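Query structure, 307 tokens:
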């Protein structure tokens, strides 16, 4: 039986002439190029993860405080009649800043003055009238005390400086010790008091960079140098006591914190070309870089033990 070839003779001869092609192409050429690119990209990413570093930050609220400002408070209870001081105005020591309602004191002064004049007239008519003389002496002392009470209804500047943080308005009722305003001296220094999480205390030291973002000016971030770090951790109650009743309740503090302070060199900062002045009680947020580690260890924490 004659064996029949699988391929025709013409097909075999044609195949022998065309030697440039492949018998079977399993994949297109772009796959091999993509594979090489993927390997190179993975290698570059691995090298980058070994070289690049990430910073961990401690973040918390911050308050601007003035170190050379005098907080003026009400000496006695009363109702505000007129506020003569305006924020930013210049004042000298002894200048009247606020006047309280003194109608009762002035009425008392008018009565005493009238009685004093009557007794003085009697004494002038009869200089030997000892009763009139004693009355004149007593009424003169009463008039001086009445004048002193009227003067006590005026809040005066304790020092020369610039008026800031006027916290009252005409018609407002104040009790003794209530804050009225602040007078800041010409050589005033502003500081920052940041309240950072207590667990970061061992990782923060003087000389670190404190980055601050004030409320209302989120487009402005400024860096300052840490001057001091508190030795103890304090809670929310102690923070309110530290800041005082004026702004203590406005600072959101949860859990134990450490107080970190920094000095503000200039009294102003620029926002959109405008010069904005710092003032006592400005709030914001601050953060400090506490730890740095390689990106690879951050992505795969288990590798820390191996290295």
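Result returned for the query:
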């Amino acid at each position: 039986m004659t064996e029949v070839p699988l391929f025709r003779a013409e097909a075999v001869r044609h195949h022998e002439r065309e030697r440039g092609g492949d018998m079977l192409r399993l994949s297109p050429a772009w796959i091999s190029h993509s594979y090489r690119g993927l390997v190179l990209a993975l290698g570059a990413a691995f090298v980058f993860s070994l070289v690049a570093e990430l910073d961990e930050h401690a973040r918390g609220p911050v308050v601007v405080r003035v170190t050379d400002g005098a907080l003026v408070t009400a000496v006695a209870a009363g109702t505000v009649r007129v506020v003569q001081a305006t924020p930013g105005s210049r004042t000298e020591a002894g200048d009247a800043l606020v006047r309280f309602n003194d109608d009762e004191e002035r009425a008392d002064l008018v009565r005493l003055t009238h009685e004093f004049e009557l007794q003085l007239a009697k004494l002038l008519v009869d200089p030997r009238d000892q009763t009139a003389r004693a009355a004149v002496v007593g009424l003169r002392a009463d008039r001086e005390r009445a004048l002193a009470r009227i003067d006590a209804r005026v809040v005066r500047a304790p020092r020369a400086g610039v008026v800031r943080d006027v916290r009252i308005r005409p018609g407002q009722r104040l009790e003794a010790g209530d804050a009225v305003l602040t007078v800041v001296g010409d050589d005033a220094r502003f500081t920052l008091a940041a309240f950072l999480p207590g667990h970061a205390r061992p990782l923060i030291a003087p000389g670190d960079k404190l980055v601050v973002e004030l409320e209302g000016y989120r487009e402005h971030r400024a860096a300052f140098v840490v001057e001091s770090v508190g030795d103890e951790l304090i809670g929310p109650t102690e923070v309110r006591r530290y800041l005082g009743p004026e702004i203590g309740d406005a600072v959101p503090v949860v859990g134990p914190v450490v107080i970190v302070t920094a000095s503000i060199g200039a009294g102003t900062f620029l926002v959109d070309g405008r010069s904005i002045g710092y003032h006592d009680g400005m709030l914001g947020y601050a953060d400090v870089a506490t730890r740095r580690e390689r990106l690879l260890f951050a992505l795969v924490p288990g590798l820390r033990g191996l290295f």
